[in-house]
UniProtKB/TrEMBL annotation:
Transmembrane segments: none annotated. Residues 8-54 form the Maltose/galactoside acetyltransferase domain. It comes from Gluconacetobacter entanii. Pfam families: Hexapep, Mac. SUPFAM superfamilies: Trimeric LpxA-like enzymes. This is Sugar O-acetyltransferase. It comes from the Bacteria. Keywords: Acyltransferase, Repeat, Transferase. Belongs to the transferase hexapeptide repeat family.
Amino acid sequence: MMPHRSEKQKMLAGKLYMASDPELQRELAQCAEWLARYNTGDGSLPERLGAVGENTCIRPPFHCDYGYNLFLGNNVFLNFNCIVLDVVPVRIGDGTQIGPGVQILAADHPRAPELRQKMLESGRSVTIGRNVWIGGGAIILPGITVGDHAIIGAGSVVTQNVAAGATVAGNPARPLHL
């Protein structure tokens, strides 16, 4: 017999979960309070995040779901208006630069309409390597891995993994051969 798992445990495992769960709603509210302080200049960056490396900068306004699933390396830069839906781990490597308005979406939804109707959600981790440059307005979808030294063009929608050293652009993002 399988032990009972809380909705939070299901979420962190990337399984289907109910986002309306009271524990998750409390944590979302706590994160919203922290973000309100941070985005008005009254908060501390590392207070809520899973890890923050040295010399890392997140320019407000910044938005995330929980914060504790976001792990930032050293010398990471996120420009204005970045959104990270961190229902599962999102890892960003050392020296990565992320342009304004970028969305990193680890939150996902079932493809089956009957499961969506039940308001179930899930998540797939996103990993962004070292020394990556992500142009403004790009969208990184759930489950994506971006290799070290890659470049993602502004406005791109990343639907597939990006190889180390590759440059991709477009919707969907495709490799550019420069």
